[in-house]
Amino acid sequence: MDLGIACSFRTTGTEALGTAIARAAATAERAGLASWWAGGDREAAADRAHDPTLGLQRVARATSRIRLGLSGDLLSLRGAAVRAKQIASIDWFGGGRLELGLDLACPPPVLADPFREIGDHVGRCIDNLGAMRALWTQRRASHHGEHVSFTGAIALPKPVGDRVPATHLRATTADVLDRYVAAHAAPAGWLAWQAGRADLVAADAVLTRVLGEAAEDVRRTWCVPVADLPAAREAIASLPVRVDELVADLDHLPTDDEIAAIAAFA
């Protein structure tokens, strides 16, 4: 089982933000942690933190091996073409290490644009992702969806290898997962984010109910608040579900001591 770290890009000391991100990221990589997840848009708003995408770009530049993850992208709030370029740019800084986590729950009111009606946020997210996949993988891209349509578009940069980055979904309901699978097939990963043990088991049951045997091919990531890491690490052996990666989440950039304490549970 892998052990990772997640955080919001918020400093608690006098260290400059860019310096603090680079220092923490390099420390996490040296400590042997498997992944660094940026907190999602929802967490950034709640913690009054800086943009997850910009912060993760700094992590990518300061490291060379650790997996990079956006944990909760609210794609329904984005323009597909701009977002495709932003994510591809991070992937180039990271040498092809970026993984994309999607948050398909309703966006919080604080992030709503009063001049732009979202309507079906799940449908818009799924459509935006389809447009982004076309821009990432096609030389002259075309996409025809309910919310986004274009023909013959040229988009650069593309992710390393002109690939679609591994896409994870934050655990959601069976009907939402059904809609995603119908459009994009099974996700690469399933994120039980800030979940207790009961929520983790319930989320796994949804995944299995929708995907059947194909659920075995989906990577399971369990994210817990850093204070709950010891109990979660101990519980994994007796859980009735598989956990491929355990992630400790902080609402701020970690100190070197905090990273060392997390790595000790590997």
TrEMBL record:
In its UniProt record, a GO molecular function of this protein is: alkanesulfonate monooxygenase activity
For whether the record's keyword set contains Flavoprotein, the answer is yes
GO biological process annotations for this chain's record?
alkanesulfonate catabolic process
Instruction: Classify the source by domain of life.
Output: Bacteria
Per the record's keyword annotation, is Manganese included, yes or no? no
Provide the transmembrane region boundaries: none
The UniProt keywords, alphabetically, are:
Flavoprotein, FMN, Monooxygenase, Oxidoreductase
Looking at the Swiss-Prot or TrEMBL record, what is one Pfam family this protein matches? Answer: Bac_luciferase
Q: Give start and end of each Luciferase-like domain.
A: 1-196
* InterPro entries referenced in this protein's UniProt entry, alphabetically: Luciferase-like_dom, Luciferase-like_sf, SsuD_RutA_monooxygenase
Q: What's this protein's name?
A: Luciferase-like domain-containing protein
